[in-house]
């Protein structure tokens, strides 16, 4: 099991939710996980129903069996100052650089430096050990940028190592890449059973593989329950409207005669069944595309009541049961 | 639970049709010759690109000369417009209805090309070659987070300056926070005005005026620190890059400022795009607030993928209860081989309260509870012959139960969407909203985009009953 679990996915697929559920799942049975947010959206705080996370590792949840989930929202600017202090003992120079606007430059404008800091900080957490020699975190789960950007994001240190051919940045960049390209890392992609997210997942996997980054699993999120199967949908089409009206009426929904309440439900209910059938077919097609990717697939159900903390634990249990941990 | 409480809780009519302060009328916005730029912004995965393309197509088919600028690296707009490759130049889209004299052009931003073109246009050939060959530049222009936003602004400015189109529709970059798009000019400005530039340029300018001497000592200390941090070679690359770009910075700044002002001008309309989901609408609210703070003209919110139901008076709870009712009676039928048990007091009792909830169904209004109950009884009796046949009867009931369960799912989705939307509306009642009914599948072609455009202009989800 890789110790750095990177979770990416197209926008709107719920990658933050999946990352959080995975962190919970991995923490079960006395483990300690760190959930890292890199995009400054405070999505983790929202999910765990806590106030905005500061730039500080803080316990946000317990998992069954006395496991613990810590969270960290990485602020690039603070991470850089942190870094300068930690690695180069440049606290004073760091402040001077900040005054000059160099820190702002580095974290918002300079190519990729922001991404260097974010990946660097995550890798530092992966490698950090207690005095006893035990890893501080058993697992680090990263809520990474979306699929379209994740390869470039993870690969930024390669680029930096090429730009800065010597010096501490070069060494640091190479150390980070060693972690990211090793089996210690797994990059998972979250998708929906829709065409565009599935296409982006396939493209993302190809890009990750080309960059020799370790691809993990595909997690299909928000899977809607199957209410009617293909055969039943066929039968619905073949059933006379009057028969359906009579059944509805028998269920206590009003009259089956023309103009009766049950009869008037038939058209909209059949219309919804047609829409369901169309989506069902599309979903089956997308499932087939995903199966062709040759990666382990997991499916998480759509939570009908919307996402809340209880739902997060439900998804974590689901991931455990499906052997994701 | 009393039937009344039941209805209160679950009937959609009371809560679900809470309308925003006003609907957003898309067509007047598209038709107004004063509208020169429409910017679509919103978080990822809400259908921003599709919305931009659909707006562009609709405006073109209504007689305007439109260019759609997309910045999305996944070539989705290209696909939906039937163009194989979108490059850095606008291409005419074929197959639109141009009877109104309109035209549609589309382009996809190529960051590197845009950056290279700026360098080539604003530096002498020798200097341009030095910049284009600089490793730091190559990395910068290849598109790290951030560069995309500057180049999008630059391209928008260029398109507007050309004055070839009377409407530009812009799809914003999929930024971590799409506000980077707005921040780009300011950030660039503050960098260009900053001391850092001077530090980086310092070695090239050593030996300047005597008064600068003290400053230079501090600066060489800084470059020393930077050198230690970045490594000598990288610092040299950065310095060479900054020195070579020096002459162009002023132009960058001027153009970025001009584009920013253009965005604030009356000819610009911002549309915030969202889906009726918690995260997307939270981002949308953030956008609305930010646009107001920047004095950017917000036209309204486009809410994509909204679900409706032609039977929205039948609540999820009642549909589920009815489905269970059917499934239970099916078991009874199988045991006894008779359908008559449906009229047993037990089953009948559970069918009574649902019927009352339907009393104000779409087309009735005057049907009383009593008539309903009688009707239901009659209907069941009529239905009995069919259910006497052991094989097909349970199947129809089972299918009807399935239809009701589908409906229950739909109603749950609908009320979740409405709750989310109402939260946004409560927060920002001033924002006009156009709702776009969800499609079961994805959009692949102009017909699909046209359909989205129709839905956008209709402003409210089309209900399944209206024969869609």
Describe the structure.
The complex is a heterodimer of chains A (325) and B (468). By secondary structure, chain A is of the alpha/beta class. Helix content of chain A is 53%, strand content 16%. Chain A is built from 13 helices and eight strands. In chain A, 53% of the residues are buried. Chain B contains 19 helices and eight strands. In chain B, strands 3-4-2-5-1-6-7-8 form an eight-stranded mixed beta sheet, sandwiched between helices. The two termini of chain B are 37 Å apart. The N terminus and C terminus of chain B are likely disordered. At the A-B interface, helix 4, helix 5, helix 7, helix 8 and helix 9 of A face helix 8, helix 10, helix 11, helix 12 and helix 13 of B.
CATH topology of the largest domain in chain A: Rossmann fold
- What is the overall pLDDT average of chain A? 89
Number of strands of chain A: 8
Helix fraction bin of chain B = 55-70%
Biggest sheet: strand arrangement of chain B = 3-4-2-5-1-6-7-8
Strand content of chain B: 5-15%
Mean pLDDT across all residues of chain B, rounded? 74
How many helices of chain B does DSSP assign?
Answer: 19
Strand sequence of the main sheet of chain A, in spatial order? Answer: 3-4-2-5-1-6-7-8
Radius of gyration of chain B: 31 Å
**Mass-distribution shape of chain B:** elongated
Spatial extent as radius of gyration of chain A: 24 Å
Using the alpha-carbon principal axes, give the shape of chain A.
Answer: elongated
Look at the structure and name the CATH superfamily of the largest domain in chain A: P-loop containing nucleotide triphosphate hydrolases
Give the uncertain stretches of chain A in residue-range form.
Answer: none
Strand content of chain A: 15-25%
- Low-confidence segments of chain B, ≥5 residues, pLDDT <50? 1-18, 204-216, 333-394, 461-468
H-E order of chain A: EHEHEEHHHHEHHEHEHHHEH
Topology-level CATH name of the largest domain in chain B: Rossmann fold
């Amino acid at each position: 099991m890789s110790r750095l679990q990177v979770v990416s996915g197209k926008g709107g697929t719920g990658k933050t939710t999946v990352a959080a559920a995975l962190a919970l799942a991995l923490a079960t049975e006395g483990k300690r996980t760190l959930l890292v947010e890199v995009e400054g959206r405070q999505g983790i705080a929202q999910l765990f129903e806590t106030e905005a996370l500061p730039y500080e590792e803080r316990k946000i949840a317990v998992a069954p069996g006395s496991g613990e989930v810590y969270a960290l929202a990485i602020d690039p600017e603070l991470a850089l100052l942190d870094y300068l202090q930690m690695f180069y003992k440049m606290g004073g120079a760091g402040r001077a650089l900040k005054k000059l606007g160099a820190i702002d430059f580095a974290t918002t404008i300079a190519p990729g430096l922001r991404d260097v800091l974010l990946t660097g900080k995550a890798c530092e957490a992966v490698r950090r050990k207690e005095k006893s020699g035990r890893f501080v975190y058993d697992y680090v789960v990263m809520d990474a940028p979306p699929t379209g950007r994740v390869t470039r994001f993870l690969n930024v240190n390669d680029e930096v190592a090429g730009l800065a051919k010597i010096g501490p940045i070069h060494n640091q960049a190479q150390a980070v890449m060693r972690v990211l390209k090793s089996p210690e890392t797994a990059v998972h992609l979250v998708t929906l059973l829709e065409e565009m997210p599935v296409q982006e997942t396939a493209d993302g996997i190809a890009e990750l593989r080309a960059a020799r980054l370790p691809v993990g699993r595909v997690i299909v999120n928000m899977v809607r329950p199957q209410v009617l199967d293909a055969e039943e949908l066929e039968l619905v089409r073949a059933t006379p409207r009057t028969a359906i009206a009579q059944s509805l009426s028998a269920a206590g929904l009003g009259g089956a005669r023309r103009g009766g309440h049950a009869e008037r439900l038939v058209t909209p209910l059949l219309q919804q069944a047609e829409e369901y059938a169309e989506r069902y077919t599309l979903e089956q097609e997308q499932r087939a595309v995903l199966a062709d990717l040759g990666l382990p697939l997991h499916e998480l159900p759509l939570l009908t009541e919307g996402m809340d903390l209880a739902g997060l634990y439900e998804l974590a249990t689901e991931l455990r049961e499906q052997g994701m941990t | 639970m009393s039937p009344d409480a039941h209805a209160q809780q679950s009937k959609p009519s009371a809560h679900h049709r809470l309308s925003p302060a006003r609907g957003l009328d898309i067509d007047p916005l598209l038709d107004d010759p004063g509208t020169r730029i429409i910017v679509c912004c919103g978080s990822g995965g809400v259908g921003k690109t599709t919305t931009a393309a659909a707006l562009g197509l609709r405006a073109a088919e209504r007689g305007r000369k439109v260019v759609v600028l997309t910045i999305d690296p996944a070539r989705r707009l290209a696909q939906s417009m039937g163009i194989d490759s979108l490059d850095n130049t606008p291409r005419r889209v074929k197959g639109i209805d141009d009877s109104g004299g309109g035209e549609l052009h589309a382009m996809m931003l190529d960051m590197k090309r845009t950056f290279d073109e700026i360098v080539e246009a604003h530096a002498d050939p020798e200097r341009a070659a030095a910049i284009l060959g600089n490793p730091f530049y190559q990395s910068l222009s290849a598109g790290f987070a951030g560069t995309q936003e500057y180049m999008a602004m630059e391209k928008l400015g260029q398109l507007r300056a050309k004055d070839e189109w009377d409407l530009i529709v812009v799809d914003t970059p999929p930024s971590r926070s799409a506000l980077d798009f707005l921040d780009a000019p300011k950030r660039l400005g503050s960098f260009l005005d900053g001391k850092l530039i001077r530090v980086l340029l310092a070695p090239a300018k050593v030996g300047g005026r005597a008064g600068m001497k003290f400053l230079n000592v501090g600066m060489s200390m800084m470059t020393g620190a930077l050198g230690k941090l970045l490594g000598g070679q990288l610092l040299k690359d950065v310095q060479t890059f900054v020195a070579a770009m020096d002459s162009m910075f002023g132009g960058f700044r001027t153009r970025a400022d001009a584009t920013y002002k253009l965005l604030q001008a009356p000819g610009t309309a911002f549309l915030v795009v969202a889906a009726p989901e918690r995260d997307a609408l939270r981002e949308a609210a953030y956008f609305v607030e930010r646009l107001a703070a920047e004095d950017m003209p917000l036209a309204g919110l486009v809410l994509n993928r909204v679900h409706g139901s032609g039977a929205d008076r039948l609540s999820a709870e009642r549909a589920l209860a009815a489905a269970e009712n059917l499934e239970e009676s099916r078991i009874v039928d199988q045991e006894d081989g008779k359908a008559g048990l449906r009229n047993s007091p037990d089953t009948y009792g559970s069918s009574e309260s649902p019927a009352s909830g339907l009393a104000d169904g779409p087309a009735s209004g005057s049907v009383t509870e009593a008539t309903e109950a009688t009707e239901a009884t009659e209907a069941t009796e009529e239905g009995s012959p069919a259910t006497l046949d052991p094989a097909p009867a349970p199947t129809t009931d089972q299918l009807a139960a399935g239809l009701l369960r589908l409906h229950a799912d739909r109603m749950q989705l609908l009320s979740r969407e409405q709750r989310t939307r109402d939260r946004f509306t409560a927060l920002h009642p001033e924002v006009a909203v156009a709702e776009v009914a969800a499609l079961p599948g994805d959009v692949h072609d102009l017909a699909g985009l046209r359909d989205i455009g129709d839905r956008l202009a209709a402003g409210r989800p089309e209900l399944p009953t209206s024969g869609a």
